[in-house]
Design brief:
This protein is of the alpha/beta class. The protein contains 26 helices and 14 strands. Helix 1 packs across helix 13 and helix 8 runs parallel beside helix 9. A hairpin with a 6-residue loop joins strand 5 and strand 6. Strands 11-10-9-8-12 form a five-stranded parallel sheet. It has a four-stranded mixed sheet with strand order 3-2-1-4. A three-stranded mixed sheet has the order 5-6-7, with helices on one face. The chain is about 50% helix and about 10% strand.
Length: about 650
């Protein structure tokens, strides 16, 4: 415990302010005031109507307050105090990384990321009476000293800093040879310490450290971040874990696929993702060149075939979203959501707090959990920085809905499923930040699809329930397809492994084809398993009969009949608006399908007409893919996994 009477002890204001942020992340409805009541002794005050300080004193002392800080909480304003300290505002959460508890390695990582040409620091000498000394491999220039001091004064406010030069001492962070890609530390290390990492990792670092303040200030929306713009209807598939749906089927449904690539495997591993999918890395590069697929990295680049990543980056730099850039997208989405979320408005938070107490009692859940559920955007915004900066998308469990969901499941089932809930819902959060639909692994559809959908619905609610859109939120709820964040993987097709990826790209180049594919798969995914099997069988039979009819008649007659119908309608004006307008639109759509530039217009017309014009939409879609895939009729029953 810090001795509060030592006048020479540096200020702990930064650490106290950060502790206050932690408290307000766990209890997002709180409005706090910070006082220094004696030298180096602090008090956090909040109104008893919001929270009884005595009820969380033990939690604060044991789980929130740093060991080396002298901080207490109270519902009583201090009679006297030395100064009142302003809390860190939500827009200032990243500024100078003030108050974070950093190890020497953390500080080294920050310094060499922010200043790539800085000599490596290799040791430091902590001292409470004299300056903290940082030793470098080479003498720092005056400019470099100022750069380092600008960072250290924020991280270690009030501490005197000195520099030393000791060329003989080797740097402890020197890269070590890897025996296997899985041996790579999952924490994000600076590019300079990772000789096997692709060169674009440095650009990834530059983006984060150059924009992190703008992100948390709300000045950089997700759509302005490289890789997250111009995606159309998108999905997210994480191939770094478990068995996934065929990429070709996703291409039939979505304009853009966000794809976390698989981890490299050893020579004696089970069949790889590429073998199971009957695709290779060259095929993926073709999809990138066609602007249909973007890589989003969750794992260290050394685990993900660095040469492949480098080749993908050469094809399209925006098609490779590094771990820190991906973290920026998630953080930006959280900030935007917290800014707009209606229940997070300061004047409503006290009422939300009272509502949380009532709901917690009714549902037998901890009040803390209910507060974090109702005010999750604030909770996540205040907790996300350290986890995202340290681990990228793998840091999402530190603030995700998974922890809240685990407590709810424990209350209803009596089972501890926290680890499963945290990992199962990571992808939902990633997809939501990307404005994409998450397609989970095939192997655990039965166990976690419903919890994932719950999380997806909640994330949609937080984003939609805003000051400007709340009046029409209920109406928007009826348009679930546009806002879906989780789609069960229905492996409908068996693709011909000899069909080149170029054929898939060509077949799915029209937006109308992809929309019809989404509609079909979405409809099938909502059916119970037995009904789904029967519906697939029915579609397969109708599709066969459609093909047989085509063999027996000349389709040119259809065009002639359409033309005759239009001519007759023009001659008989009284029925034109009622009868032939539909045929005219159908003809316009048919013509537009032959011109890629007009396809989006045609699709918009057809989508808004209601009933499909001409042929059954499912069969129309299936006829386009019949050359490369067959309908799968042997759907395996859904198992229950993970719970």
């Amino acid at each position: 415990m810090t001795n509060p009477t030592r006048p020479e002890f540096p200020s702990q204001v930064g650490q106290v302010r950060r502790t206050d942020v932690t408290l307000r992340s766990l209890y997002p409805h709180l409005e706090t005031r910070i006082f220094e009541v004696e030298p180096h002794r602090y008090l956090l005050f909040f109104d008893r109507d919001l929270l009884d300080a005595a009820s969380i004193t033990e939690q604060f002392d044991h789980q929130i307050c740093p060991v080396a800080a002298w901080i207490s909480i109270s519902n009583q304003l201090p009679a006297t105090y030395l100064q009142e300290i302003q809390p860190i505002q939500d827009k200032e959460l990243s500024r100078g990384f003030e108050g974070f508890s950093f190890s020497f390695s953390d500080i080294v990582n920050i310094l060499i990321r922010k200043f790539p040409d800085l000599p490596l620091p290799h040791r430091y000498s902590p001292n409470q009476n004299n300056p903290i000394t940082f030793a470098f491999e080479q003498q720092l220039s005056p400019k470099q000293e100022q750069q380092v001091l600008s960072v250290l004064n924020g991280i270690l406010p009030g501490w005197p800093i000195a520099f030393a030069y000791d060329q003989e001492k080797p740097a402890p962070n020197s890269p070590k040879p890897l025996t296997h890609p899985r041996d790579v530390d999952i924490d994000i290390k600076p590019h300079r310490l990772r000789p096997k990492a692709p060169l674009f990792v440095r650009d990834d670092e530059d983006f984060w450290f150059g924009n992190v303040d703008q992100i948390f200030e709300g000045r950089l929306p997700p759509s302005a971040i490289p890789g997250a713009a111009n995606i159309g209807m998108a999905c997210y598939i994480d191939a770094s874990v478990a068995k996934q749906i065929d990429l070709r089927q996703a291409l039939l449904m979505y304009d853009t696929i966000f794809f976390s690539p698989p981890i490299m495997q050893g020579a004696h591993s089970k069949p790889s993702f590429w073998e199971e999918q009957h695709v290779n890395q060259a095929d993926v590069l073709k999809l990138i060149e066609a602007s249909r697929l973007r890589l989003i990295l969750t794992q260290p680049e050394e685990r993900t075939a660095p040469d492949f990543l480098h080749a993908a980056h050469e094809r399209d730099p925006h098609a490779v979203i590094g771990r820190l850039t991906a973290a920026g997208i998630v953080a930006s989405d959280l900030v935007r959501t917290a800014d707009d979320y209606l229940l997070a408005r300061p004047n409503l938070r006290p009422q939300v707090g009272k509502l949380a107490y009532l709901l917690a009692e009714e549902l037998s859940l901890p009040t803390e959990t209910m507060l974090q559920l109702l005010l999750w955007p604030l909770h996540a915004q205040r907790r996300c920085l350290a986890g995202l900066m340290q681990r990228g998308l793998m840091g999402i469990p530190t603030f995700s809905q998974g922890g809240i969901l685990a407590k709810e499941l424990n209350a209803t089932t009596g089972r501890d499923l926290e680890l499963e809930a945290l990992m199962a819902n990571n992808g939902v959060h990633v997809a939501h930040a990307l404005n994409a639909t998450f397609i989970p692994p095939l192997e655990d559809v039965g166990g976690w699809i419903i919890p994932r959908k719950i999380v997806g619905d909640r994330l949609n609610f937080y984003r939609s329930f805003t000051t400007s859109t709340a009046p029409c939120w209920a109406e928007n709820e009826r348009r679930k397809q546009a806002g879906t964040r989780v789609l069960p993987p229905v492996p409908l097709f068996d693709f011909n492994r000899h069909a080149p990826i170029e054929d898939i790209i060509a077949i799915t180049s029209q937006r109308s084809v992809r929309r019809k594919g989404r509609t079909l798969i979405s409809r099938l995914s909502e059916l119970p398993q037995d009904e789904r099997d029967a519906e697939i069988e029915r579609i397969a039979q109708e599709f066969y009969e459609l093909g047989a009819r085509r063999d027996r008649r000349n389709f040119h007659l259809d065009v002639v009949n359409d033309s005759i119908d239009v001519v007759a309608a023009v001659a008989e004006l009284s029925i034109f608006p009622v009868k032939s307008a539909w045929n005219l639109l159908a003809r316009c759509i048919s013509l537009a399908r032959h011109f890629p530039a007009l396809d989006a217009l045609a699709d918009t017309i057809e989508e808004n007409l209601g009933p499909k014009i001409g042929r059954n939409s499912d069969l129309d879609f299936l006829s386009k893919v019949s050359r490369v895939a067959d309908i799968r009729k042997d759907q395996p029953p859904s198992g229950v996994h993970g719970n």
